[in-house]
TrEMBL record:
Keywords: Hydrolase. NCBIfam families: HAD-SF-IA-v3. InterPro entries: CbbY-like, HAD-like_sf, HAD-SF_hydro_IA, HAD_sf, PGP-like_dom2. This is HAD-IA family hydrolase. Signal peptide: none annotated. GO terms for molecular function: hydrolase activity. The lineage of its organism: Bacteria, Pseudomonadati, Pseudomonadota, Betaproteobacteria, Burkholderiales. It comes from the Bacteria. It holds the Pfam family Hydrolase.
Length: 259
């Protein structure tokens, strides 16, 4: 394993509840009588990308709408308002990183293992979310940061992962992707990148066939995983455990077995 690639929403931080609130706040501001509740948003999350998600919903509720240009312009305007609400809500570290994320970033930086980000969210959202927990210079900790501006075609298309691979110059099979969703897993696998999944309330019922391992989170000393889940006596996934998973080993130290 020569590089670790992080998805953002749902993986680095549990952000989708805040995204949902921001969408609803934007709909209210433009006086649209749309409201995405948890159940509907869980289904809409099958569409990666906020603009694409709005378009999918709009075409469901108003199938007769045919003015594509007006629709695109209106969606862009709504999404800009949504992004303002989202960045206001996550600014200053309001949404913490998930267990193990800061610990793995520290460990990888100390070990000189290249890190990257592959997300479908916007640059503005990334800066607002990560500058709190990782500091204003957070980008310096990553060899590549690819987002909606790097790859307009969203997951499950592999485009954003291809953009990362091009920037870091590491073969796909030597990378490991950390994802939370089926779309993210499919994008990583389509790019030839092995993936470990950490689920959340929005994605835990999705299909993760092809993942090296599916975990509730990466664990931390303060929030250890049950050994039966992590497969490591330590109760959290460190670089050594991820390397063993990547190498097709059980994460138990030393024991080589197909998992
Ligand atoms: C998850 C997404 C994003 C967010 C909303 O991104 O699909 O669209 O739900 O953010 P990730 P935007 O690839 O990090 O899991 O409104 O900025 O798209
Ligand atoms: Mg995600």
């Amino acid at each position: 394993m020569q590089a670790l690639i992080f998805d953002v929403d749902g993986t680095m931080a549990d952000t989708e509840a805040v995204h949902r609130e921001a969408f609803n706040a934007a709909f209210a501001e433009v006086r649209l009588d749309w409201h995405w509740d948890e159940a509907l948003y869980t289904r809409l999350l099958n569409v990666a990308g906020g603009k694409e998600r709005i378009e999918r919903y709009w075409r469901c509720v108003e199938p007769e709408e045919t003015d594509g240009k007006r629709m695109k312009e209106t969606i862009a305007a709504i999404h800009a308002i949504k992004t303002r609400y989202y960045t206001e809500r996550v600014h200053g570290g309001a949404v913490a990183l998930r267990p193990g994320i800061a610990r793995l970033i520290d460990e990888a930086n100390a070990a000189g293992l290249p890190l990257a980000i592959a997300t479908t969210t916007t640059t503005a959202n990334l800066d607002a979310l990560l500058s709190g927990p990782l500091g204003a210079a957070w980008r310096k900790r990553f060899a590549a940061v690819c987002d909606a501006s790097s790859a307009p075609v969203k997951k499950p298309a592999p485009d954003v992962y291809y953009a990362v691979l091009q920037q870091i110059g590491v073969p796909a099979a030597e990378c490991l992707a950390l994802e939370d969703s089926e779309n993210g897993l499919r994008a990583a696998r389509a790019a030839g990148i092995p993936a470990v999944i950490t689920t959340n309330a929005y994605t835990e019922t999705q299909c993760f066939d092809g993942a090296l391992r599916v975990l509730p989170h990466l664990g931390d000393p303060r929030q250890p995983l049950p050994e039966s889940v992590a497969g490591t006596e330590r109760g959290w996934m460190d670089l050594a455990a991820l390397r063993r998973l990547h190498g097709g080993q059980s994460v138990h130290e030393g024991r080589k077995e197909n998992i």
